[in-house]
């Protein structure tokens, strides 16, 4: 994830910033169905199988993104990174899960009774100390908590003088019965005391108070409150939905985040992990969702982890130690630490990203290419010495990516030339060959913008829907064109062993039907290049969900990925047609490939693939127009039954989305189709299964 300057919209800027019916037959969907588009599927012309990793995701700690979506902790700043003040700052505006410090602690009782101990804190830089009074309760509280009507469990790390009487109270309403108070059996030394509450109503304005009376003082080191149905600390609801979507590979924990990230702060007892300031995303991270938690989450949702190590402020030894902690046996130094932390078995992580976008000056620890290739080689050698079986992904930085905003802009030189000092991928191929298995590329094409090759700036363009939806696929194709040039310059690429991981990509960041159409066309472009595109990571994987702090549903884009994941084929076949995609309106270069992406079935985009057993052929069709279309489909080399099953994703309008607390607008419905031209609904993605006769 990048901070390009100045030409393109970065992920930071972008982030800040349905129902189909059951039976599809030869009857027209709408009276104004267009003239049939002819297409022939050539089942005998196969491409390499689709790697399931093309249905992958990317996830990093951006503020509270992970903490508020997948993790079940109810409290914010639970280890007191921020000092406690009577009037906390106003809650920032933003999407759920991306807020910054949405809740803060406040004193209960006079402000003068509370101080922050910076000499002997429990963890981090400070811990609150409360001076008691026999006349009134004093302590700390956090309000604005989102809770459901269910049981909650927690703990408080505390020390108190012997005459102190300490209680914890969860309040979920204004009435005297809308609360529960439990006694906290604190000792004079630091002690973890369990908490349990039975909340009787759902609210977003609950309050937790930890107060005491008596003489002396009490200290609080850490507090935690989670729903009792949490799964190893994760939310049961979002975990189940991620498992349902079936993400095949998840790139974690970053992203830009890792360039200033110390992984050693994220292992061991969560209550003793220090909260730290993340200078990349300007947020105090509690470090609760660390190495073990993220890898366990991957196990629970059946996703292969692609683990990223920092080459920002870290050195090769840190990379080697991470490999040993994660993959080493329990009799190695770092494997023993993992075992002591409750995980005796190695995680056996195969895929390892060394660095992230290190070609960009927004990355902490960025250095020039001629120095970075040395650093990469040191990391790769040190990590493979620990585990020779790991698969290494290196930051690519192809010229299209470097030109259109992911690289470092140079005034007067907007176009990055192949083989130049700014061609990061070429530098990796030249100086780090043999020390990576795949090169990573990232793309965040901005909406309704075009890159000016003369000035290096973006200008506004207005595009019809089908061309708006083509932009992500076009960015895949610019990378493909780069790859062809790299193969000419580096003939060793032609053996096909080195792959491309498109491990960060997104478009619009709005999880609605319109975005689904664009992402469907993007998947089709991945499928056309399975000879070397081996993984894709949608940004962010949590975009497949819509959620608040207690509820969640699968989003529109989540439904789209789920449909392809469950029903599309495995072995792509050739798709031909008599309706070619229009020629580009702009000259090639930057974000414009020499030809536009798509199949020769304009305005439809068609992709087809055989199932692994070759018993069925699945045809996927994206109709990014507001008019019904007819497709006259012929199949060569595969004798199919007449009619069969189909699946359709659509919604009432382009802005349709799935939101918590509302009826699902974008859904996948199953049906059947009959012989004859296929009738493709407006603004839809449809899959048709042709079973071998």
UniProtKB/TrEMBL annotation:
Lineage top rank: taxon: Bacteria
Chain segments carrying region Disordered: 83-105
Protein keywords: Carbohydrate metabolism, Glycosidase, Hydrolase, Signal
Pfam families the UniProt entry points to: Alpha-L-AF_C, ASD1_dom
Record field: catalytic activity: Hydrolysis of terminal non-reducing alpha-L-arabinofuranoside residues in alpha-L-arabinosides
Keyword Ion transport: no
EC number: 3.2.1.55
Signal peptide: 1-31
Residue ranges constituting the Alpha-L-arabinofuranosidase C-terminal domain according to the UniProt record: 503-684
Ranges of biased composition (kind: Basic and acidic residues): 92-103
Subunit structure, as described in the record: Homohexamer; trimer of dimers.
Protein name: non-reducing end alpha-L-arabinofuranosidase
Lineage: Bacteria, Pseudomonadati, Pseudomonadota, Alphaproteobacteria, Caulobacterales
